[in-house]
Amino acid sequence: MKVRKAIFPVAGLGTRFLPATKSSPKEMLALIDKPLVQYVVEEAVASGIEQIIFVTGRTKRAIEDHFDSSPELENHLAEKGKDDTLQAVRELSDMVDIYYVRQKKALGLGHAILCARDFIGNEPFAVLLGDDIIDAPTPCLKQLLDVYEHYKGSVLALEQVPHEQISSYGCVAVNRITDRVMEVTDMVEKPQPAEAPSDLAIIGRYLLTPAIFPILAQQQPGRGGEIQLTDAIKRLSHDEAVYGCLFEGQRHDCGDKLGFLKATVDLALKRDEFKDDFAAYLRHRLC
Ligand code: UTP
Q1: Residue 244 half-sphere exposure toward CB, CA atoms < 13 A
Q2: Which of 8, 196, 241, 259 could share a disulfide with 253, CB 3.0–4.6 Å?
Q3: How far is the centre of ligand 1, averaged over its atoms, from the C-alpha of 77 (Å)?
Q4: Which region holds residue 266: left if phi is over 0, alpha if psi is between -120 and 50, else beta?
């Protein structure tokens, strides 16, 4: 069955980016001139997703406004003859069908996914986390979809991370099938490096079968007292095969301040309009 729908859970509290995220969403932090969430919506659309549901919470209204039409702003841009900007603003509200549901309490990522169950129904679906920005020749989600079409099971995006950093991620044990595709045999959320079964981290892109929902509905709180998606996927892997895909591309963890800074520099150095000036500035600062 074709994967048409995607869940964007954005109801987390964004504590690593306080105070910037006290009253405005982490996903609206701007990387150069676009909010983080727009990069990720563009990736979903480029991968063929037709409908998106945001799982939102308090302080997240700016996300709805960002993807809505804005007649006042559009009139103003039209009057001033700013046609390129007008087109960019209009494209935003026409990009894809977007729906919203509230997670009333931030009980964890697994719980956030469960909040979108009625919208998804009995179809496979994608989950994209708005703070992982992935710069890739083939959109990361499309890479996962290709694995899904071939193996017909849930697929997790994986990244090899430095051993000492594995405790920040969900971690998997795997049997390799090809260089980039593997079957997941075990999962553990944020293990101590000594207890980690590998250095393969689960990052913020998932393709899941709807069999995850009854498991999530029964899932007890795990690490940090939160209902963990990783715990539910581990149980799913006992019932059906779950695959991992070592995606090709560069991931930026923009939920983290240093990761966000690095992403800004990398993306700026790729933009024709200021890459030369910016590179010259950086060279000047560093010598
Ligand atoms: P994180 O673990 O990154 O948490 O959530 P966070 O709240 O966004 O950020 P920090 O760590 O406190 O700085 C992973 C993803 O799951 C969503 C978040 O919005 C983020 O996209 N999430 C998390 C929810 O939607 N609901 C929750 O209850 C928890």
Answers
A1: 29
A2: 259
A3: 35
A4: alpha
Task: Give Rg (Cα) of the chain.
Answer: 19
CB atoms inside a 10 Å sphere around CB 194 = 7
Task: Tell me the pLDDT tens digit for each residue of 225-254.
Answer: 999 999 999 999 999 999 999 999 999 999
Q: Which residues have CB under 8 Å from 146's CB, separation 6+?
A: none
CATH topology of domain 5-255: Spore Coat Polysaccharide Biosynthesis Protein SpsA; Chain A (3.90.550)
Domain boundaries, the chain: 5-255
Question: The pTM is what?
Answer: 0.94
Here the tokens at position 61 are: 């209204």
Dihedral angle computed from the Cα positions of residues 228, 233, 234 and 239, in that order, rounded to the nearest 10 degrees: 140
| 168-227 pLDDT per residue, tens | 999 999 999 999 999 999 999 899 999 999 999 999 999 999 999 999 999 998 888 999
Rounded distance from Cα 127 to ligand 1 centre (Å)? 13
Tokens of 282: 């950086």
Question: Is the Cβ–Cβ distance between 139 and 47 less than 8 Å?
Answer: yes
**Are 171 and 160 contacting, i.e. CB atoms less than 8 angstroms apart?**
no
Ligand 1, from 21, 54, 59, 109: best to mutate by most atoms within 8 Å of Cβ?
109
- The number of the ligand 1 atom at minimal distance from the alpha carbon of 8 is 21
Q: How far apart are alpha carbons 129 and 110 in whole angstroms?
A: 12
Task: Tell me, using a 6 A CB cutoff, whether residue 204 lines ligand 1.
Answer: no
